[in-house]
């Protein structure tokens, strides 16, 4: 495809996306296809001859779109938001157009240096501690996801135990601490790193706040130490996936410091809320105690996937765990020690120019625009929570400080299992309507509906319509 | 940014990319900035107010471009190619525009089903065995990189040893087998998975072919077994990074089968060459012996990063190693067992609609176009190798069956260390010229220059000019 052909087709693709976004409310939010339905419409065999890009766009409309769940739809309240805004799409397009590799500084210096700058900007925007900046001992890096960030943190934590796991492998029993509400990626990190799921300890949570019980954490660590294990990492969560519960980072941090255990803070969803000074309390204790901290601009901060920000208080053990320098990557800049080679900060070797999209977002919206987005979505969620609270047919899970509201229809005459089944039928009916998409979670044996506000496309009228529909469905 | 604003700015970004590509030869291939130079030109602090996208494009031109190494330049002969063609950029743009998550089938069915289809197409296009197809016991998945693919293979291999590493962690000494020419990502996978670098055995290579010595592999496995270790995975490489050497997969596979060890085949660069039937010999033994196989369309097959294809002969141990199902991801489709949830096939949880770019490439070029690209770049490299061979001032590394040529200037009067230093000075002078970019490797203590042809922008005149400049530089 020549540059001129790209110019022509590129503008058609831009038009396609603009039209798609402008008309997104005409689609059912959740795809209605059955398993295998999309596949059955696609050719069994690859094309022998090339085709025009119009054929791709035609099949996108006719075959693929019915199989797409529209995450950017204003009625998408499921999971957590996955904001893919205009400036982020354009930043990502520039990354594709440049087509450079940023595995080491020397392979494209701007790719590395812009990443450092925007992550330092984000430290300031979120009120994170200055030692997370790369000009201190720490530093930030863009990961593909909070799962990979957790794995990198876990590898750094293993290295810091002094067992030299990178060289000798796992030779003792290492333990990792989570709560029942910690994201499953932490157990996954333990499996991947050779720690094993059996060595993941589940710390009790406070029945009211659903936050981790620091006292129980300390007991578990003590018991593991007594049995000869190496307590390696604790994960505290700021904004759990289930309900946005917030672990007491400060109390957990004190235990970690006392016991010499790495503290990873997973704020994948909620951390970006700290662009608003009035929400910075969620990060209490992070500055003093976090060894690593992760939050995802690709969820709620207007930047399209993948863009997960990971910071470390001390980057040395991570680099020790991950750095290998084969001859064909040797270069004067790396050997000078004056540059960052982000390949030593992540699982893969290759890397896109991902900072371009975050840079585009930060510049297009500015700090003001980011705060407005967070405040606006939190306000809508709080308004929705008020409606739920005032309705005797519903119960509301407290607290709900951010933009996720968990609630359930009261069925006072039904045993919990039957009430849960009925809640699931309500959920299915709502999602089948095509007007909105909610997901669920389970707390203390009870099925809860989750409504997460977060798309810049979602206006008050969409939340009102959702509430109206939910009330009619129960 | 409204859909209409996106339409306007999007077309400007498309124009920017088309102009960049049309004028790419006006840039020095390798960036000339010094460490910190780009960073120093960027503001210390994030913007408080939002700005127009024109400000982003202006700073891209003025601040970032001087710090970019132009991987899509026709004079880029370094590392391996990283093709970012028009249709792949547009497919990726569509992925950004849709902004969907494909972590499980239910979160966007088309995202999963198109991926399955295009990877099945690729099985046919590359002549890979039908048991790699998802409708058999195996299956293909797009990973971000061959490094992550190697890690996934390693985790599956660990699981298949019967030690239930996912649950119990690493409790015995596991060993992994590579050659000195295997990509460093394999040692990295061993570190990440808790096996440890010390348990990576380096198998001898044949001094002529640089391929792994299957007899020595068998000896090492036997010795490890005798010492109580668990031989877990062998990595055979088809097209090493250093010199595109090809390990004897069939002989290695026979050892692996006999010994019950997982065989991973890393064909990251070279595997895609098998779109040409006359090059399918490189995959000899894969059909019979490979437990996992990886090749990167994002290198030489016209698809922009990230798009690394991984296939497994049996997906079960991988899924056993990686699958965790939290409540908020439970859904009827997953529980029916009728669908694929690719989240269980990779390190991260979230995933982009990456198959769109591969689909766009396969349709735009067709099998014919892909073969033409591979044949054209191989022919240019072979022609270049001929010029080197015929020049008494140069020595050529044989064989060079693909599109990488390794060679060195003969300095018959210099000891090898001095000759190497001089070769490095030649390399620096060439790269400083801005006309071309080569990298180097080291074989048997000798520094070799690597010239990798692979960009669709590279024409015969660029290779001729490179040769002319190289001859003048020695």
From TrEMBL, chains A, B:
Protein name as catalogued: Aromatic-L-amino-acid decarboxylase
GO MF annotations in UniProt: aromatic-L-amino-acid decarboxylase activity; pyridoxal phosphate binding
Modification N6-(pyridoxal phosphate)lysine, positions: 299
GO cellular component: cytoplasm
Names of the cofactor(s): pyridoxal 5'-phosphate
Gene3D superfamilies assigned: Aspartate Aminotransferase, domain 1, dopa decarboxylase, N-terminal domain, Type I PLP-dependent aspartate aminotransferase-like (Major domain)
Annotated GO biological process: amino acid metabolic process; carboxylic acid metabolic process
Tree of life domain: Bacteria
Keywords: Decarboxylase, Lyase, Pyridoxal phosphate
Source organism of this protein record: Saccharopolyspora flava
Family affiliation: Belongs to the group II decarboxylase family.
InterPro entries for the chain: Aromatic_deC, PyrdxlP-dep_de-COase, PyrdxlP-dep_Trfase, PyrdxlP-dep_Trfase_major, PyrdxlP-dep_Trfase_small
Keyword Lipid biosynthesis assigned: no
């Amino acid at each position: 495809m020549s540059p001129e052909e790209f110019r022509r087709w590129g503008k058609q693709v831009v038009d396609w996306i603009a039209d798609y976004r402008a008309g997104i409310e005409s689609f059912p939010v959740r795809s209605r296809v059955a398993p295998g339905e999309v596949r059955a419409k696609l050719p069994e065999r690859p094309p022998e001859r090339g085709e025009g890009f119009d054929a791709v766009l035609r099949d996108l409309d006719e075959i693929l779109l019915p199989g797409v769940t529209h995450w950017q739809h204003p009625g998408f309240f499921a999971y957590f938001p996955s904001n893919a805004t205009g400036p982020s799409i354009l930043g990502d397009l520039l990354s594709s157009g440049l087509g450079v590799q940023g595995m080491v500084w020397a392979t494209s210096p701007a790719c590395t240096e812009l990443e450092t700058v925007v992550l330092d900007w984000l430290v300031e925007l979120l009120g994170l501690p200055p030692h997370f900046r790369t000009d201190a001992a720490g530093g930030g890096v863009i990961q593909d996801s909070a799962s990979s960030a957790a794995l990198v943190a876990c590898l750094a934590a293993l290295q810091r135990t002094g067992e030299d796991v990178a060289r000798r492998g796992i030779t003792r029993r290492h333990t990792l601490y989570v709560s029942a509400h910690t994201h499953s990626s932490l157990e996954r990190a333990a499996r991947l790193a050779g720690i094993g799921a059996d060595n993941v300890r589940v710390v009790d949570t406070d029945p009211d706040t659903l936050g981790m019980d620091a006292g129980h954490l300390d007991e578990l660590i003590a018991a593991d130490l007594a049995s000869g294990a190496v307590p390696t990492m604790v994960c505290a969560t700021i904004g759990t996936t289930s309900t946005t519960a917030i672990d007491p980072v400060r109390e957990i941090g004190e235990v970690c410091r006392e016991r010499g255990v790495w503290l990873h803070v997973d704020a994948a969803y909620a951390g970006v809320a700290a662009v608003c000074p009035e929400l910075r309390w969620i990060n209490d204790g992070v500055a003093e105690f976090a060894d690593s901290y992760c939050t995802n601009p690709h969820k709620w901060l207007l930047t399209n996937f993948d863009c997960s920000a990971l910071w470390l208080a001390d980057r040395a053990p991570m680099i020790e765990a991950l750095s290998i320098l084969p001859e064909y990557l040797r270069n004067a800049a790396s050997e000078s020690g004056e540059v960052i080679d982000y390949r030593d900060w992540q699982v893969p070797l290759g890397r896109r120019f991902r900072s371009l999209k975050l840079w585009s977002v930060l510049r297009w919206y500015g700090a003001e625009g980011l705060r407005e987005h967070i405040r606006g979505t939190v306000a809508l969620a709080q308004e929705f929570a008020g409606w739920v609270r005032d309705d005797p047919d519903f119960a509301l899970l407290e607290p709900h400080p951010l933009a996720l509201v968990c609630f359930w229809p009261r069925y006072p005459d039904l045993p919990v299992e039957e009430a849960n089944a009925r809640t699931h039928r309500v959920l299915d009916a709502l999602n089948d309507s095509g007007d909105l998409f909610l997901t669920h979670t389970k707390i203390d044996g009870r099925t809860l509906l989750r409504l997460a506000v977060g798309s810049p496309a979602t206006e008050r009228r969409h939340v009102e319509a959702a509430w109206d529909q939910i009330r009619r469905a129960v």
